[in-house]
């Protein structure tokens, strides 16, 4: 199914916008611009057309013009009147820039100069035109083919209003002249939408933000292909149109990503499947106050969470990731949409983890991923639906990895002794002597009632003794405490999910937020 529509292409340098037509298929976004093409006859180059108009007693030249050098645009034909001189030639179109009048170059002439020249050019006026493919939108040229129109000019002419040249001008001839009409063997021209740029959507990305800022473009965005080719800034007339196109393009990009994942998964073992992947913006924590974002490509595959600068295309690319983290040891958190009743929070309450590190941000749809040794990454996506997919994908990937792994053991110490601490999906927590393998203590997940840590290496785990109902405190010291806490969190959340999967689904923060909006 192909979606088409009219939009504007915004030029940030000139600050002008040009009419374009968008054509969206499943795999490609095509940008089209209008041009005049020769459809029959000898003239294959429709770049310049020279046309002779015979001024008529009623209707004059039968056209109106806009523009001029004072507005940094050429003078263009803005109206063509039905059954009058200009239309009868079959060679002139709305949007044609006038280059010459009776051999005089007018490319840098003002609006008033061209009006004067055309009105005083006699009964036969020869004009050379070239279709202006990038007519600034402020000229408000109609996009359709020439049709019946009325002239609204009055008094002094203005570049932004039509100056009508369907008046008689200074004609010396009062007898009716023969109409301007195309000769049989002369070339025929048509105005058509022509493809000017095609952007493949596979692994493409969309940006609604002004480069390097937190400022959202108003009803506008750009699409960037995998090879970096950009559509430029696509501007839409209404917020609804912008949202519709954004959603349609995002859907097609997501569908293609899904196809790429299926292809990649054919070459991977069942334990190393890609769960989800896609583009995000990562906030770069700089020394200055300006918050910069950079495109990153994330993937959840097998036991790992990958961060790439460019998407992995071949199997070799997976080892070239900028960062690779074990899924059991990362903590996923949604920002700005943080509700106090989800399964992650349940696990947090077990552990006493307070996720309140404050990241002020202008962008909605943000999430962070915290890893071992206190490392964290802060990401932003373009749509709430993408955030919901990332949330669900992280949960699924972590739960699968926990169930696959079954247990994780960490070296730790307590009162000078070297111990091993195991988190086991079936058994819960076990602590044993690293040399003798003697079990020192064992508790189920449900017995963990709280925890506290010093933010560095030491943690206190509070367990309830099933017999005495007393709280027992176990103090341990780890080299990478964050990784261990994240691992405990992942195992508890996975346990909750295995007991009540419906509960997990019902607690999706992002999806709750989307439905409430």
From TrEMBL:
Region (Disordered): 143-186
GO molecular function list: actin binding; structural molecule activity
Locations listed in the record: Cytoplasm, Cytoskeleton
Main subcellular location: cytoplasm
GO CC annotation terms, alphabetical: cytoskeleton; syntrophin complex
CDD domains per record: PDZ_syntrophin-like (cd06801)
InterPro entries (alphabetical): PDZ, PDZ_sf, PH-like_dom_sf, Syntrophin, Syntrophin_4th
Domain of life according to the entry: Eukaryota
Keywords: Actin-binding, Cytoplasm, Cytoskeleton
Entry's family note: Belongs to the syntrophin family.
Protein's name in the database: SNTG2 protein
């Amino acid at each position: 199914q192909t979606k088409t529509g009219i939009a504007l292409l915004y030029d940030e340098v000139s600050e002008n916008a040009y009419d374009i037509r968008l054509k969206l298929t499943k795999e490609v976004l095509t940008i089209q611009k209008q041009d005049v093409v020769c459809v029959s006859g000898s003239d294959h180059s429709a770049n310049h057309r020279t046309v002779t108009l015979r001024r008529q007693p009623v209707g004059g030249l039968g056209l109106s013009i806009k523009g001029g050098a004072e507005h940094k645009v050429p003078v263009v034909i803005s109206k063509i009147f039905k059954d009058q001189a200009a239309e009868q030639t079959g060679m002139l179109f709305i949007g044609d820039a006038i280059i010459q009048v009776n051999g005089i170059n007018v490319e840098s002439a003002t609006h008033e100069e061209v009006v004067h020249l055309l009105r005083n050019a006699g009964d036969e006026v020869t004009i050379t035109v070239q279709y202006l493919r990038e007519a600034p939108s402020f000229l408000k040229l109609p996009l359709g083919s020439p049709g019946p129109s009325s002239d609204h000019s009055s008094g002094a002419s203005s570049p932004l209003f039509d100056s009508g040249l369907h008046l008689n001008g200074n004609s010396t001839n009062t007898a009716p002249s023969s109409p301007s009409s195309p000769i049989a063997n002369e070339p025929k021209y048509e105005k058509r939408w022509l493809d000017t740029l095609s952007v493949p959507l596979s692994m493409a990305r969309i940006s609604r933000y002004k480069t390097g800022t937190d400022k959202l473009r108003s009803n506008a965005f750009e699409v960037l292909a995998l090879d970096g080719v950009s559509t430029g800034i696509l501007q839409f007339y209404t917020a609804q149109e912008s949202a519709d196109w954004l959603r349609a393009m995002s859907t097609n990009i997501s569908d293609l990503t899904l196809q790429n994942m299926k292809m990649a998964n054919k070459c991977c073992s069942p334990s190393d499947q890609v769960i989800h992947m896609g583009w995000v913006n990562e906030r770069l924590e700089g020394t200055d106050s300006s918050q910069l974002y950079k495109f990153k490509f994330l993937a959840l595959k097998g036991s790992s969470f990958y961060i790439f600068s460019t998407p992995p295309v071949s199997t070799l690319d997976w080892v070239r990731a900028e960062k690779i983290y074990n899924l059991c040891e990362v903590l996923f958190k949604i920002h700005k949409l943080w509700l106090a009743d989800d399964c992650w929070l349940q696990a947090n309450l077990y552990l006493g983890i307070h996720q309140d590190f404050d990241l002020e941000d202008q962008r909605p749809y943000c999430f962070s991923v915290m890893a071992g040794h206190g490392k964290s990454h802060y990401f932003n996506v373009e749509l709430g639906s993408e955030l919901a997919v990332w949330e669900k994908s992280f949960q699924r990937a972590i739960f699968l990895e926990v169930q696959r792994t079954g247990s994780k053991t960490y070296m730790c110490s307590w009162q000078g002794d070297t111990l091993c601490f195991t988190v086991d999906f079936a058994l819960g927590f076990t602590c044993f002597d690293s040399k003798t393998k003697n079990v020192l203590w064992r508790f189920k997940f449900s017995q963990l009632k709280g925890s506290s840590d010093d933010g560095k290496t030491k943690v206190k785990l509070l367990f309830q003794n099933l017999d005495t109902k007393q709280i027992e405190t176990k103090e341990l010291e780890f080299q990478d405490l964050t990784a261990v806490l994240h691992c405990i969190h992942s195992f508890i959340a996975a346990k909750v999910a295995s007991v009540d999967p419906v509960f997990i689904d019902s607690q999706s923060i992002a999806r709750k937020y989307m439905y409430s909006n």
